[in-house]
Structures
1.
Amino acid sequence: MMTRFLTALVALVTFAGLAAAQDERETIVFGVVATEQSENVLHLWEPFVEDMARDTGFNVELRSATDYAGVIEAMRADQVQVAWLTNASGLEASRRANAEVFAKFIYPDGQLGYRSIIIVPEDSPMQDIEDLLVCDGTVNFGLGDPLSTSGTLVPQAYIFADRGIDPQTCFNQVTSASHEQNLLAVANGQLDAATNNTTNIDRLERARPDVLERVRTIWRSPLIQTDPIMWRTDLSPETKATIQEFFLTYGWRGDAEQRAHEQAVLRELEMGGFLPATNEHFLPIMRLELTRDLAEARSDPDLDEAVRAERIAAIEAEMAELSEREHLVAARDLSADIAMARREMVANPDGPQDQVTNLVTTYLQDSPRPEGRAAQINRRPETGQIGRMMIGLIVGLIVAIGLFVTSKPPKYSPARMPSDRIIDAAIWGGLVGLLVWSFWPAEVFKLPLLAENADRMGEYVAGFARPDFSEAGNYLRQIVVTVQIALWGTFFAVILAIPLGLLGASNIAPFWIRRPVRWVMDGLRAINELVVAAVFVAAVGLGPFAGVLALAFHTAGVLGKLFSEAVEAIEEGPVEGVRATGAGPLNEVTWAVIPQVIPLWASYALYRFESNTRSATILGLIGAGGIGQVLYENIRSFEYGKTAVVIGMIIIAVTLVDMMSQVLRKRLM
């Protein structure tokens, strides 16, 4: 039976290798970020990618991640060749991922940009941005992702840096989250203000107008350009020409039927087509960065004056160089705009005849941004860390003294050593003191809010009461992938954990081997699966295999510790019996140690398979495959009916794995 299985496995692997070898088309991996413009980015981009593969002749693979860093690192490692990014993340990709802009999208109505906004609850006393910037330490404020253009970079440059304000000292609390999470937090009164953008607001107006009724806008930024499409600079000229031709003509080529199909695909993506672009697309973003850096350098109280002057001079030199590049771009764009305006004036002599004058006036206007006023920041007092520590210490001492006094045994009971009573009292007193000290930093005082805001939780949970099964087939496939990730991750972990468990056991390996092995196991356990997955995305690209490796390495540390403890608990009799025959250490392990621990090892491995099935559900958040990415995107897109279906499937899958694991453990034990 085993021979047939191995033969079939070898044949299957060989066939797969031959099949892969036969597809000699160039592979292009297209990476996209699951931003607020889609509920399921893979589903929405698939028709576009299918058309791209058909028309270009390339083997185009679609990969998605919910954070910008995942796509950038995958692009840097040449695991992604073409990507749709935001302005801020695209600039970062041009700096560290060997990437450049070749196109940008426009909106269906022809608009070339969107705006960053600040939103507050509808009943908030804040009426404008100056009310927000009182800086009395009472406002809870929400920023976007660190690489978000509208959520972080634009507000930092236009609002805070210009006024010399550090949000961390201006506000009571500053959080970082997606646009949807910030919007819900403001609507529910959990944040006093937060960043967002007009694109997200327009989309939400169609999906959840009831949420928008609970917020209002107090600030809007200047226009931000639409997001860029980028490729790696080391693609061949022929490949670049083919890709760019496809993007720039998509939706505006072929017969009426083809144009209707492609424009329908673009509308689903909330796009109207693509325009050519270069890295000059990032010039406004670069100016925002320099403006922010200059304001921070001028207002930083910790800088030495000489260092401050040097830093300001360097930033101003960069801004001067950037101004020259902006002037060249503006002159080139003005030439094209004037030529178009002249044609329109000739074609329509009865229409407006001041278009050229307006264009030139706008071009010649020198309107540098004002330096901005220095905010009168009312800094809140220190949070009293030392005071809380003293309170915790005093309470702990009182508890310790009380326990020491009350723990004195009755007159005729067995006596206890005073040292034992002191140690016990110190342990319990220290625990109580730590709890008191941690009460404010952990915000345990918010516990009553669970009862006060129960209606809000009920409103949120009510959205899950109407399950939407329209994508159930796709969710089921992703659940299967999640279980497969957990299975292979656990398998690789067991392979790694066996030598770690043996070499980490005190009755097998000497100290000079055992201690470094345990350090390795500690390190593997200490690093979260999401962090490990992000590392492997750079090596193997976006997809399930990065999740497999992340689970394998983290679980190997856990199983290695459990395996070593099982080895240390074995009976010495069988080992001594094998040793009496003159067998060496390897034979002792093979015939006396492993037979004793195999059942326990198998039980631990099955338990970790259960845990990995649950852990694998969140690895999709960074593009490591499985159901997690679908779940997160649905939550971010307010698709609570679909989210309910996904959660239900996850519960069923984990329950089935748990039942199977219990049956197998009973058989093995």
2.
Amino acid sequence: MSVPTSARRLVAGLCTGALLVPLVVIGGPAAQAAAPVTVAPSSPLVTAAEGDVATVALTATTGDGTALAAPVTVFWSTGTGTASGGADYTETGGVVTFPAGATSGSTQEVGVEIAADDDAETTETVPLTFSTTTADATVTGGATVAVLANGFPYLDATLPVDERVDDLLGRMTLAEKAGQMTQAERANVAGSPGRVASLGLGSVLSGGGSTPTPNTPAGWADMVDGFQTQSLSTRLSIPLLYGVDAVHGHNNLVGATVFPHNIGLGAMRDPGLVERAAHITAAETRTTGPQWSFAPCICVARDLRWGRTYESFGEDPALVVLNETAIDGLQGPARSEVDRPDRVLASVKHFAGDGDTTFGTGSGDYTIDQGVTITSREDFERIDLVPYVPAVRDHRAGTVMPSFSSVDWTEDGIGNPVKMHAQTELVTGWLKGEQEFDGFVISDWEAIKQLPGDYAAQVRASVNAGVDMFMEPNSPDPFVATLMGEVRAGRVPVARVDDAVRRILRQKVELGLFEHPYTDRAGQGSIGSAEHRAVAREAVVKSQVLLRNSGGALPLAKDARIYLAGRAADNIGIQAGGWTVTWQGQPVKDLIPGTTIRAGIGQVAPDAQVTFSEDASAPTDGSDVGVVVVGETPYAEGFGDVDGPGWPWDPSDGGVPREPGKQLTLTPADQAVVDTVCGAIDTCVVLVVAGRPNVVADPDGQVDALVASWLPGSEGAGVADVLFGDAPFTGRLGMTWPRTPEQEPINVGDADYDPELPFGWGLRTDSARERLTDLARELASSRDRDVRRALAEIATAVQQGGWTGSGGAADERTVLRALGRAVDRLAGGDGLTWQQMDTLISVLRDAAQQRVVEAGDDAPPGWAADLADAEHALLVGEYARAAHLLLGVAGHR
């Protein structure tokens, strides 16, 4: 029989036939004090496989926390359960004694030998009872050993996945199937964990900010394993799947590495680094228990007024697709790797159109979130469905989460929207049918309750539309009962339920949960490690977008006299944003471990003389440069909608709504700090720490350098790295930067496209010549004919460009024409990776942007549209078109 190693509860040094585990007293003798003593099992339920020794720990505590004043003797024995004494386990009992002087909280263990045989058996139980005759001592509660189901084909790891799933499904009752389709919230079952077993729950989740006490790696693992024990104690020992919103790191856990939000990752144009960040997130998450992350969001954000904009990689579906390497980072590049202890199941979301809803159609007080996507089927497929094709076909995402939003097809007239949780055409027809998605569909938080009708109608509509598991955080019991009622009434086909459960079970088998249901804690020491934080810092560096740099204001001198101001300069809660420790995040300075931007400046430029004044009230005299760090107060989902409601319910809010009626402009207080500092100091740098572009008023041109810093997470030193030139600015906008808020929505490809800065904009501070030289070195060994010809053109550009010491080209015409020819040589082949083509074309972009900057109001007509269209062309592999457009803006077509 196959025995799950991680499910064993081995007792070190326990000899065959032994009934009692020797005492291990934690702590030395303490001062004795007469106090009542309570002895109780540390856990009322333990699991064991056949052939194991089941161990139950007893803990002795005193009422006042002092050491035991006298010995406490506890009698214990096995009782009568569903397992057969003698045949299934050794009937036994004994005595354990906690000696006088043992510290409060000392433990002892008792063991029960579980027999092994070749029979296939469902889960059986062995109860244990405890008592004492010691004066002033009380024993509370008993314990149950659940002997795991064993011997069935579905437990045989050598069999094919589908064969195991079919075997298990064929043994399940309707109640067990309904339970597998149900997901409850941690808080709903924490007080009565036995409901995990009685309902046969398929999954439990932690919503944003729903954490164990203590909020530590061990606390998380203990919690998840406790729920897992309940799940394994059910008739068929089907393991539990635990989900969390690990959307920019394991962000619910204090001490985890917190990465930039997706809007920053998208600005990097570095899919390899996105994958590495996701892999670290997976590793830090799974080693604390959860095996499933509700990430990544592959939404296409088309309106900056949406409060979830920062969860998107960008406004162009092609940019989203580029960064779907996040799925590989979570699950592993090969789908077979998802069972490793450093991988988790991914959930691509929110299917589909969540970022394309119309302003004014939002749900409740939300102005756009959970609203209606009003579109044609053709445009919906071109914009909103495109990311899901590679997500499920190439990256093999294990789960898909539908959106709260609705879709209203223009072909049949506007006014009859259908919620995505009831969209049979898209969930069953397009996703599961046309795209052959073989994972499962998980509903969003109580999303089915937004459907029309009573609860039975909501359940029926969503199950029949193709949703497989239901996030009913606070109502798992009525969901199970309602689903069973709908099946028995014939309104939900048994075949639909079987399909849903088969999909869920397949993911559990592939995750290796039947073999290794409990948490592998070996990786906990790497959580928030220097190595992991270095990757996050690299991501911060590459995500910074230099929007303006008049007079070469950046990089700063490391011995400069700096006047640092702004509420985001020294507040790690603001720079981490929403979905950090709590759902909405909190503007709390010490919310998580990490480095603020101010602290990062101190690390990177220790010789700089920094005057810090958050509100710019301190004198500015004698400063060489002002650095103002402003941005947005943390928010999540509809509470970040423009003109939306304010969140008042985190501890730091004190019941006061947090900036209701948000706008795409700086707050008056932030704008006042910018005006004060930039009006007083000749050189002024403004950093915008925000989840989307914000309009910064600068009518007098006093802001010399403007940086989009996004929401960098825990590693603010990465911002300092680029400010002082330790690393270059290389990031590019994944979202169009509007001139005014009234321009929204404005996106690449629009017919009337005239923003402040276009999609793809980003000034660089590295050497173009070095980029080309490094690229030529990478390609030197290629035997591809087109690559060799392109190398000759690159050599012409490098050798004849008349390059200056700063890496610019004096003979720009020669350089750009040579590089244009190089792109033409390569455009039709696959001799270069996308990243290498991006490097080559970046030099053309530099020249185009430089011409726009130098021309000011006299920039070429349509330049913004041309630059944005060039970025889109690059992303979709139309390299020659991208080069053509950039050369045109640069004046060298």
